[in-house]
Design a protein that fits this description.
- With about 375 residues, this protein is mainly α.
- A hairpin with a 2-residue loop joins strand 1 and strand 2.
- Helix 5 runs antiparallel to helix 7.
- It is globular.
Length: about 375
């Protein structure tokens, strides 16, 4: 089952890492591997959400999402989108950006370095909003309860996430953008950072608005489908159980694509905190995207979601760390390996905490069963 589901992911990983080592050396091998792990860790909760929604579709629409969807995810968001970001921020055409990356890497590096304050401010704000909206929301399970529970109470204040993010942007503009690092030394990038940061905030709000719109449409269609099923039962007609189709499945598909694009977006933006090399970025994120899709299929086929409840927390703490690092890199350079491993450490810690929690629950249930067995046997 595992080999059948993840076979293509394993093959793409082996081919991608081998190509990176052959074409660019061991440094590229390491960066691509880190980016793959980063994408998987940041998008794990996306796979869980996808699986929960995808299982409601019929077989046809599941196939559409897992074929056309993977093309959009890998080739669109992971390959084209980084080029678009570089092209816009460096004020060059997309084709010129790719040509520079291939033919004149020094010039490309200079353009990316000059554009980095804008990229960092834009991406830092987008990622920071994702983290803040997560940390200010009340949840059933808390990982670091001593900080998450008080922040969840503060989250009742309207627009708190946006206010905190804007304060972070102002502080970054005041302390980091004044002497931002560029290819020609240091320059005042205050206006650029403020403009790019506000654009990142607006982009997040637009993506969230689209997700909410499709979610509302989905709920309407599901309610209509439920009413039709109830009417069919009352009339004694057979009720189909093959999954949603038609408009309901179409809205599901659109909703999933918006969700996937938003998760892809934070993965791409986070990758800029690790490397500016668009080909390493596309390769690493593409490998990670394959695993996210495979994991989605696995969860759907198994009919159950993962029990590691703290992984989502770890992923969002990693997003928050990346957001802070991006804002700091407006002025200061931070080694990409430190950035990558910080995310891996946070994810690893949340995974281990989940394992410990599951063992503790299993032991408690085993003890309860043992006590009941002892009582029933007269012990």
């Amino acid at each position: 089952m595992v080999l059948k589901t993840f076979g293509w992911s394993f093959a793409v990983t082996a081919a991608g890492l081998a190509f990176a080592a052959w074409q660019w050396g061991w440094e590229a091998f390491g960066i691509v591997l880190i980016l793959s792990i980063l994408e998987i860790s940041l998008s794990f909760d996306n796979a869980v959400v996808n699986a929960g929604i995808l299982k409601k579709m019929n077989a046809f629409w599941q196939k559409i999402f897992l074929t056309i969807g993977i093309l959009i995810a890998v080739f669109g968001m992971r390959l084209v989108f980084p080029v678009v970001i570089v092209a816009i921020s460096a004020k060059v055409g997309p084709i010129e950006a790719v040509q520079l990356a291939m033919d004149d890497p020094d010039r490309y590096e200079a353009l990316v370095t000059d554009a980095h304050p804008a990229i960092a401010a834009f991406g830092g704000m987008f990622l920071l909003m994702i983290f803040l909206d997560f940390i200010f929301e009340k949840r059933e399970h808390t990982w670091l309860s001593w900080i998450e529970k008080p922040l969840a109470k503060l989250g009742k204040v309207d627009m708190l996430s946006a206010c905190v993010a804007l304060i972070a942007l102002l502080l970054s503009a005041m302390y980091f953008a004044v002497e931002a690092h560029t290819s020609s030394g240091h320059a005042d990038k205050t206006a650029t950072v403020l403009l790019a940061g506000v654009a990142g905030l607006i982009t997040y709000l637009v993506v969230g608005g689209l997700s909410g719109y499709f979610e509302d449409k989905l709920e309407e269609e599901e309610e209509r489908e439920h009413e039709e099923e109830e009417e069919a039962k009352r009339e004694g007609k057979p009720v189909s159980a093959v999954g949603l189709a038609g408009k309901a499945a179409f809205f599901l598909f659109l909703y999933l694509e918006v969700l996937d694009a938003s998760f892809s977006f934070d993965g791409v933006i986070g990758a800029f905190a690790i490397t500016n090399h668009i080909f390493w970025m596309a390769l690493g994120l593409g490998i990670g995207a394959m695993y996210v899709r495979s994991l989605t299929v696995y969860l759907v086929r198994e009919g159950t979601l993962d029990d590691y409840v703290y992984l989502e927390h770890g992923a969002h703490y990693a997003i928050g760390a990346l957001a802070g690092i991006l804002l700091v890199t407006i002025r200061y350079e931070i080694n990409e390996f430190i950035t990558g491993f910080l995310g891996v450490i946070l994810i690893g810690a949340s995974f281990w905490s989940s394992v410990v929690r599951n063992k503790r629950i299993a032991a408690a249930e085993g003890g309860t069963s043992g006590d009941k067995a002892g009582i029933s046997s007269g012990v």
